């Protein structure tokens, strides 16, 4: 959502789609109607008495005032009708408190709309520097009291003079965010049930001739055995695969849960509108010609979304392949993919239809089952975030694979996918690695926080496995679905081919795995009989010296690969807690017997599954090792605690906000030293004192006060890379040296800006730290090796905000130069506690002030006595098309933990 701009869509618990947006002047009549339609009791609870027409007119006037630091108002709209409004009025011009009010239409109470409005209002208030919302509630207004309690575990209330005062913090704490996410998931699961577990499906555009998208999708639904009521719609009324056919959507027997649309793009909107008349709750638009097809297509797509919102319909696509649910109670193949998968534990969402088909093909070839598959297409409505919420509690889904080309709301993705990854492995292939680049004139921090690096940071913090390629994603998915996680990084290799064993060892070292023991890899020789192979594998598995076991089998005319694989399958099943992968080469025709499956030689080698538990079998050692390494990395992340957002003392948010607002009022952009230092000081971030001098005499006088030796730097805020332009002079030991250096240093930038004079400081290690703000991902914090080595060595770490205490510690430990911070070759160790405190303060600054577009502290001197920034560059910019961190797509009134089983489909 754009703050102060368009709305964000949300879902009530019953699946109705609600739009939350700021109040506008033209909402006056709708607000008047909201209060006119209210019962006297509702008005009494809101206004403490039944107000007259004059009082209501004054309330509408208040709500319609333009948004400002003193006044905020948001409303909820469903199907073009206003269903609720919330507002806040600051109690004084700059104070941290605001009085809030909330009103929801009588017919729409109990749906979570009030909670949703307060969430959005609190988020907007927080951005305005308001830290607490307070209000008065009548003791018998139980619904309002419950809403406040549900919104935050730290809401307070007290009884005074016949009313209850209520207070809510605007900055969401972990408990509050967890409660919101739980409500989100509950509502999301309810809204997607008609899509993935429909009791009835109609395919519109299912012609009678084979080969058409609609025809083939209808046939797929019938062939896969959809358990509900199935219908087809075409103008001729010609039969399709023994499916009842209707000439128009309006003639379908209501209700229809899911409508699959395969008509020309210019007809889709009319079909969707007709679907609303027969109760359609979800739609899959297979048709192309929308957002991907230029301005006209984009207009069609927007109209489609508008219709879906108006009628409460969840929409997949357009321009997609379809959806699949292998649940035996549903058996939904509403797609034109070439083959339906077998049931299994991997859920797939793909923004590209071709990539989605590739994933399905690999699953079929490897005997790897799928729980659900969604081709997202243009992501006009249903997105990866929505599906992540759905899969969180889906018992059929054991792991999730995502192919993404864009993020709709990266901050929500980071939060929700991290929660999912704590329960189930998540793999994501994000396209566009090659698009990462540097902006000319950017600070070191902004240049380092290129899009792909930011995605890496997002995935690393959220525990998402990011394979390098589609093939690696497919391989890792097989290792992470239904298999035990490695308990560490120790790998044992048992094989009958010495050369392949060596390749496996090389790949393991490159992937960060450790081969323990002297006889590892264990080479049994090509002629090893099945019993010897199984005995060796069992010995290694039973020894407990390895966290993972890799079995390598090469088939020859002199051995019996099928019997070897069967024997190894029995060993695998005897050790259900050990992560195992196998490699089978040359066994294309092998039948693996009772304990295995068919092994077929495809483009990527022999793919099969081993043992009753289905341990994956790969075509090369490198593929198997990379899959094991991905599993080990994910398991290691899941074992680590998430950390917490620590309390930071000495932060003056009010002063910082004033500094930023004043600077933006003057145009923003690169800021002078005084502004930069003041902002850092407000967040308790140490910066070396300095004096700006505009003449050589002033510079010499400042140097005398500060003490020699001194450093002169250009004070021009526009000059980013000062050293490259001759804008820095070091080791100036007296007034004459300062006077002599003044002119060339000042000339490196705008001469009128003068120079910055600082006492020269040294420390064992120079670092760079900073903030860069991305309009999609939000802000990232950077730490790296500093000084002139920053760009040369590229040794740096990124983290998205909000940051935890453990994030700060991991940042410096994951640097290649980390030994320099802990006392390399006898050097004194750096005060890493102070370094972590600096990073956390930068994270909090970035979180509170997204207007900080770039902040570059380079160098940061780190030593035994602490850390201090020597130079700082700050660029401020208004926040534009930036998603608010607390704006969410969902809300729900269903109690947390309430089980929502997939409904039993009706028989056709």
Describe what this molecule looks like in 3D.
The chain is an alpha/beta fold and 908 residues long. The protein folds into 5 domains: 8-171, 3-Layer(aba) Sandwich (Aminopeptidase); 191-479, Succinyl-CoA synthetase domains (Rossmann fold), CATH 3.40.50.261; 486-637, 3-Layer(aba) Sandwich (Rossmann fold), CATH 3.40.50.261; 689-760, ATP-grasp fold, A domain (Dna Ligase, domain 1), CATH 3.30.1490; 765-876, ATP-grasp fold, B domain (D-amino Acid Aminotransferase, Chain A, domain 1). The protein has 26 helices and 39 strands. It has an 8-stranded mixed β-sheet, sandwiched between helices. The longest helix is centred in the N-terminal third of the chain and has 23 residues, at 174-196. The two termini are 43 Å apart. Residues 1-7, 435-441, 589-606 and 881-908 have low confidence and may be disordered.
């Amino acid at each position: 959502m754009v703050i102060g701009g368009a709305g964000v869509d949300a879902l009530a618990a019953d699946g109705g789609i609600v739009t939350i947006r700021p109040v506008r002047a033209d909402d006056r009549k709708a607000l008047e109607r909201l209060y006119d339609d209210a019962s006297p009791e509702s008005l009494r609870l809101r206004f403490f008495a039944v107000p007259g027409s004059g009082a209501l007119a004054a309330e509408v006037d208040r709500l319609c005032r333009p948004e400002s630091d003193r006044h905020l108002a948001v409303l909820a709209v469903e199907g073009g009708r206003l269903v609720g409004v919330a507002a806040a009025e600051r109690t004084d011009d700059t104070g941290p408190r605001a009085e809030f009010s909330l009103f929801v239409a009588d017919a729409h109470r109990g749906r979570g709309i009030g909670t949703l409005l307060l969430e959005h209002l609190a988020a907007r208030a927080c951005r305005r520097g308001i830290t607490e919302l307070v209000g008065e509630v009548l003791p018998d207004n139980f619904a309002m009291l419950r809403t406040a309690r549900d919104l935050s575990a730290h809401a307070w209330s007290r009884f005074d003079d016949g009313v209850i005062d209520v207070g809510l913090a605007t900055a969401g704490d972990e408990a509050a965010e967890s409660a919101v996410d739980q409500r989100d998931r509950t509502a999301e699961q309810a809204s997607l049930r008609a899509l993935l577990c429909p009791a009835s499906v109609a395919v519109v555009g299912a012609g009678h001739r084979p080969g058409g998208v609609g025809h083939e999708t209808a046939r797929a639904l019938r062939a896969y055995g959809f358990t509900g009521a199935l219908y087809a719609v075409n103008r001729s009324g010609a039969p399709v695969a023994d499916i009842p056919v209707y000439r128009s959507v309006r003639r379908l027997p209501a209700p229809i849960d899911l409508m699959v649309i395969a008509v020309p793009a210019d007809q889709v909107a009319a079909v969707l509108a007709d679907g609303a008349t027969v109760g359609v709750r979800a739609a899959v638009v297979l048709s192309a010609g929308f957002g991907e097809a230029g301005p006209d297509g984009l207009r069609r797509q927007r109209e489609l979304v508008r219709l879906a919102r108006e009628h409460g319909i969840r929409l997949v696509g357009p321009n997609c392949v379809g959806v699949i649910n292998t649940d035996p109670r549903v058996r939904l193949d509403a797609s034109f993919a070439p083959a339906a998968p077998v049931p299994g534990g991997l859920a797939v969402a793909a923004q590209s239809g071709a990539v989605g088909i590739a994933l399905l093909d690999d699953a079929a070839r490897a005997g790897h089952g799928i729980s659900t598959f969604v081709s997202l297409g243009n992501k006009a409505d249903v997105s990866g975030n929505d599906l992540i919420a759905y899969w969180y509690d889906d018992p059929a889904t054991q792991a999730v694979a995502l192919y993404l080309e864009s993020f709709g709301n990266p901050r929500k993705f980071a939060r929700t996918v991290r929660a999912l990854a704590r329960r189930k492995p998540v793999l994501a292939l994000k396209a566009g690695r090659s698009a990462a680049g540097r902006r000319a004139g950017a600070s070191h921090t902004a240049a380092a926080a290129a899009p792909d690096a930011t995605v890496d940071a997002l995935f690393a913090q959220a525990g998402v496995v990011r394979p390098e390629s589609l093939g690696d994603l497919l391989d890792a998915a097989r290792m992470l679905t239904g298999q035990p996680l490695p308990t560490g990084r120790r790998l044992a290799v048992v094989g009958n081919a010495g050369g392949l064993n060596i390749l496996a060892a090389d790949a393991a070292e490159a992937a960060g795995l450790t081969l323990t023991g002297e006889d590892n890899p264990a080479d049994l020789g090509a002629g090893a009989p099945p019993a010897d192979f199984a005995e060796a594998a069992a010995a290694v598995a039973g020894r407990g010296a390895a966290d993972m076991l890799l079995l390598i089998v090469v088939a020859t005319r002199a051995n019996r690969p099928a019997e070897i694989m069967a024997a190894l399958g029995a060993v695998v099943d005897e050790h259900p807690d050990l992560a195992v992968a196998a490699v089978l080469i040359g066994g294309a025709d092998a039948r693996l017997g009772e304990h295995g499956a068919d092994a077929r030689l495809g483009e990527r080698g022999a793919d099969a599954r081993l043992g009753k538990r289905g341990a994956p079998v790969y075509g090369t050692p490198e593929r198997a090792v990379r899959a094991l390494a991905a599993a080990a990395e994910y398991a290691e992340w899941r074992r680590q605690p998430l950390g917490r957002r620590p309390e930071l003392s000495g932060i003056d948010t009010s002063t910082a906000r004033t500094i930023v607002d004043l600077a933006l009022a003057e145009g923003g952009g690169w800021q002078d030293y005084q502004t930069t230092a003041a902002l850092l000081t407000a967040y308790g971030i140490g910066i070396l004192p300095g004096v700006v001098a505009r003449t050589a005499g002033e510079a010499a006088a400042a140097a005398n006060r500060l003490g020699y030796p001194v450093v002169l730097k250009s004070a021009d805020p526009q000059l980013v890379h000062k050293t490259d332009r001759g804008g820095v002079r070091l080791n100036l030991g007296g007034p004459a040296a300062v006077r002599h250096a003044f002119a060339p240093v000042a000339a490196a930038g705008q001469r009128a800006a003068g120079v910055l004079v600082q006492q020269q400081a040294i420390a064992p290690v120079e670092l760079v730290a900073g903030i860069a703000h991305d309009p999609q991902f939000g802000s990232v914090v950077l730490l790296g090796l500093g000084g002139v080595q920053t760009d040369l060595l590229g040794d740096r770490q990124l983290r998205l905000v909000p940051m935890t205490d453990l994030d700060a510690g991991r940042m410096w430990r994951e640097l290649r130069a980390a030994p320099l911070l802990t006392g390399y070759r006898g050097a004194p160790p750096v005060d890493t506690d102070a370094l972590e405190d600096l990073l956390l303060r930068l994270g909090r600054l970035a979180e509170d002030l997204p207007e900080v577009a770039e902040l570059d502290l380079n160098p940061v001197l780190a030593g035994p006595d602490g850390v201090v920034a020597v130079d700082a560059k700050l660029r401020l910019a208004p926040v534009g098309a930036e998603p608010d961190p607390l704006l969410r797509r969902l809300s729900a009134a269903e109690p947390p933990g309430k089980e929502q089983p997939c409904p039993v489909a009706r028989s056709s």
